[in-house]
Structures are given as C-alpha cells and as structure tokens.
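so my prof wants the structure for this chain in the tokens format not the other one, which i didnt know existed until like an hour ago. anyway here's the sequence
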Amino acid sequence: MVIARIATVALIGCFAATPANSDMLRDWYISAGLGWDHADRVTFENGALLEIDRRGYRPNAALGAKFGENWRVELNGSIQENTPEILYLPSAPLEVNPDERDVLRASSLMANVLRDIPIGIAWRPYVGVGIGVTNLEYRLSETETRVSPRIDFVDDESTTLAFQLIGGFTVPITRRLDLAAVYRYWKAPSPDLEDVNGADLDIDHTVHSVWLHLRYHAPNAGVFKTPAPRRKPLRGFYVETAIGGSFSEDSDIRDREIVLDAYELGPTVTAALGYAWRNRWRFELEGQYRTNEVELVDFRQPVGEDPADGHVKSYSLMANVIHQFSPGSSVRPFFGIGYGFVHGSFDVDVFGVCRSRVCGPEFSFKHVDDDANTTAFQLMAGFDVAVTPRATFTADYRWWRTYHFKMQQPDGSPYEAYLQNRSITVGLRYSLGGER
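here's what i got, hopefully its the right format
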C-alpha cells in the first residue's frame, strides 16, 4: 500500500509539473468513453477456480496535457466490472453458483505516460504505461433457493497497487475533437483479499479491455497540428487484411436445456478482395477466422453450471456490401452488411458434471467434438483513415451470427448450436486502382 501511494504521488507530481513549462490553458485535454472488460480466470491459493463473464459497457475518463513534441501525461479514472459465473472447489469437490448480486469491481485512478507515433496523414497510433491505485471489490456467494438462504463465500475489498499497458490510435473528427480507440492490459497483483473465514485468497486480478473515447482538446493539445486533408477517392480493386478481438455470446443448444456459456476473449483475422465502385459503394469477398475458448457449460437445473475446457472455431467466406460516407475525406465512416458460408468446429470437454453439488473426475466426459457447415450474416460499422494516397487504415465493429450447426455428440445424439459474435478489428487496405 505504501509503495502504491508513493508511485502514484510521484507520477501525479510529474503530471502536474511537466505542463508548468508550457501554457496549461493551451495544452490540456479531456476525454470520456465506454468499453468492454474481460477478466482472466482467477485461481485461488487453495486451488479453487473462478470463471468470469463480461458485464456490459463500463465508463472511462481522463484529464491530460501535452508536453514535448509527441508526449502526453494524464490522470485516468475507470470502473471495471465483471460477473462471477462459477466457483469450483476441486479439493472439496464442490461448485458454487454466484447470484445476480455478486460482482467483481475495480475502481481505479491511474497516472499514464503516453507516446504518440507520427505515422500517416490522419491517424496517430500511441503506446503508454500507467500506474495507480484501485479499489478492488469481490462479492461471491451461493445462489439463494427456496430451501437455503444466500451463503457468502467472499465479501471483501482492498485498495491496492495496479498497473496497465496501453496501445491505441487517434483520428481527428473536427479541429478540436478526436476519436481514440485503445486496448489496455490492466493488472492488480496480489490484492489483500480474504474469504468470510479470514483466509488469504492470494490471487491476481487481470483485465483486458477495449475502449472508445471522445477527446476534446485545447488548441495546442491535439496530436494533429492541422485538420486532416481531403483526398480524392480511388476506384477499382483493393486488398485488405485486419485483426482484432472477438466476444462470443452464450450459445443455446436447440431443443436442449444446455448453454455454452462464458466464452474467453478470442482472436479474429480477416482478409478481403474488393472493388470500389463509384464514390460511395464497395463490394468484397472476405475470409474470416474466429476462435473462442469455452469456460462453462450450463446444464440448467438440477445440474447447473460446470467448468469446461475446449474451443469453438469458425472459418467463413462472406460477401459484403459497404456504403462509404464522406468518400473524399481522410476520415470516412462506413456501414455494411454481409452474408456467407461458415464451417464451424466444436471441441468441448466438461470439467465435471456434478451430482448433488459434488464433482469429480468420474463425471468428466467429452461434451461435443464435431464440425458442420451453415450460413451466417453480419452487420459492420466503422471508419477508414488515410495513411498514404493508396494505403488506408480501417477500424470496425461487427455483429456476426450463424444459423444452427447440425452436429452429433459422442453418444450419437443430435446437437444443434449457433454462434453469435461481437468483434472489433483494425487493419490496412491497399488500393490497386486509380483516382475517379
């Protein structure tokens, strides 16, 4: 705790002192945004495993100042929340299903040092590090039923040191308003948390998050010295590749009381060949790859949730139609729809199907190991940013959903599941054509 205070005070002092060499009224900026949080699986000292799911959009805000040519310092406040899904106690062996009142919450104040990288016409990637203090709150309990009250297992909080690694990019919207997208790896090592019996939990709490920010800055605090120049649109063929992160939603199994639950954050990779037609339309064939690990299988009552180990992979070929806004600008929003074919592979082992809340290796089994084909559709929204006259940086959000894959379980029983995925990707497009 003392180390956390010293480190934070030192960085805050740096933040306050550095802009004193310039005009604070000209170099400040403020930002606010929303993002997704994904917390890693937590392993307790006694071997217990806590599986964690996402909990919706969370806020993030910062007050910063520019110094030097491409450096910034800022104070960053954020709230990160995640939903505890299942606490598995292999030494008992028991499993505990938290209820809707349980939460893992981290409220943080971080001091960040950021470096903008001057690349391209109208976008600026940046990297940074941060350190600060966080109030970490853990509430875990057994679900209340008609015959048993709510039983607390952990209800504690700790103020501790945290650090984060930052990578993102900035694009201009107006002369004083920018849009920033950022990934943060955030970690609170060894917080002082105890269970209701006073035993030390001895855990690390790690969160991966993706945020979108609007940043309003004073005249000299922006990362761009002049507004982004306009650019003549290019027609003809282009190639594009992108990479990003995907968040799979819970997958219901048709006609069965089973749900593939609490997927891990996974990678998404795309490659496309397209044609830019007229000023505002693009058509493309796009190949996609996605994979997500499955953390839980929910068998509903009376079995409940059980830990799982395995993955779901998909390979798809999509035909997309994209409408481009402001085609002559350096920053160009777009919207698109797509439809195509998907090959899916499901390989999931259940950690232990429990009877009367008792789990053991004798109940373990292969849940599904099969693959099938189906179709999918997607909605896309994003923006392009000029890097060179032919190269374009692109970032987008996608909602992607398949129809049911028709498969079989190892015992031959039918197994039909769909996939629903939300992803954020960034990439580069290179035009092979000429000016219109």
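also thought this was worth mentioning. Residues 1-22 have pLDDT under 50 and may be disordered.
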